[in-house]
Amino acid sequence: MWYNNILETIGNTPMVKLNKITKDIPATVLAKIETTNPGNSIKDRMALKMIEDAERDGRLKPGGTIIEGTSGNTGMGLAIAAVIKGYKCIFTSTDKQSKEKFDALRAFGAEVIVCPTNVDPEDARSYYSVSSRLEREVPNSWKPNQYDNLSNSAAHYEQTGPEIWEQTEGKITHLVAGVGTGGTISGTAKYLKEKNPNIKVLGIDTYGSVFKKYKETGIFDKDEIYPYITEGIGEDFLPQNVDFSLIDHFEKVTDKDAALMTREVALREGIFVGNSTGSAVAGVLQMKDMFKEGDVVVIIFPDHGTRYLGKMYNEDWLRERGFLKDEKLTARDIIKKKETSEIVTIDSEKTVLEAINTIKTLNISQIPVTQQGMVIGKITESDILDALLENGALKSAPVKTITTTPFPFVDLNTSIDKISSMINRENIAVLVEDDHGKIEIITQYDIINAMAG
Length: 453
Fold this sequence. Notes:
Largest sheet: 6 strands, mixed
Radius of gyration: 28 Å
Structural class: alpha/beta
Number of helices: 15
Number of strands: 16
Distance between the termini: 61 Å
Strand order of the largest sheet: 1-2-10-7-8-9
């Protein structure tokens, strides 16, 4: 048996029992693995449904351009469908999204416009506003508007809900899903609650989003809104696809807990997941007292880890945000273990001959070059040798004539792995500013010395 095109492979995703991460939860905890969709996310379902509904009622015409504000996954679903159906795509997104998501969209021929995160939705620069303006300006274009387009929820009412019901043989007691556009949780919940009104629907929210407070108080509180790192869930407005009457409880999860749990799911369950899955699993662990023996909890795992390699799966990214404290040596540890010595620099106006004498006297191979006390470049033994072989008279020239790119600066929390990867034949050291503002140099020798110590 074969499929006529890749769109026919959307849906019918597997259900997998979680074991290690959920060992302290008395219930059976199952993951609905949506990464097996062709675009590696659950958004393929609603992207195709929105397109087909728009084709049916004439909003999307042959040869048209699809314009959407998307954090990446909906864009991927739309872009794949557009390739098969012959549409162009322009996507607007925010600068907090991972570069991998944008690269993936461009791989399918989409144009991506990156907009600032930290602005109101009504701001002309927001990704909502820019996509709406483009829809007005680009001829024969259509904006799906995944937030308010109820085809989004309908896709999950028609597909995701029935699949979960069948796969659990109707035994599901709790549905857990991140809430962003609201389509996944609301559409799935509507179907499941029609089958069994006692099923509890638990929405995962993030700090900086308005959902939880609005559900509990009916107040849309702008003071709840602030920038957050977690991708794919939470909002600073109320999308029409979020049906609060179907969601029994919202659980907020911090950026740190979401990021670290994303990694844990891969490390402990062998499932390579995205950031919102980490948030959902962390939320389930926070809510563990809600579950009892015999309960069947289904968590939707919406997307794939490949889109977060530069973020949640990058230890330096985690360290920079204070999310990761581990035993790996950092730049701070390396300079602590160094023998104390003043960093040798040379002023850019000194002669090349003076640089040669410094290198000889101190038995060093490279010197940072300064101008008015600021590091502006470097010279190495090989730079001097190459210059003199070309022109012997350069001995009396100022050092700045042969200065090359400066050694890169690293943060005190940069890991030994990252520093090692930055040191190579062209770049034999890195610079770091210590807690007192003093500049230190780290060479390969210093790294070996720190590891040996």
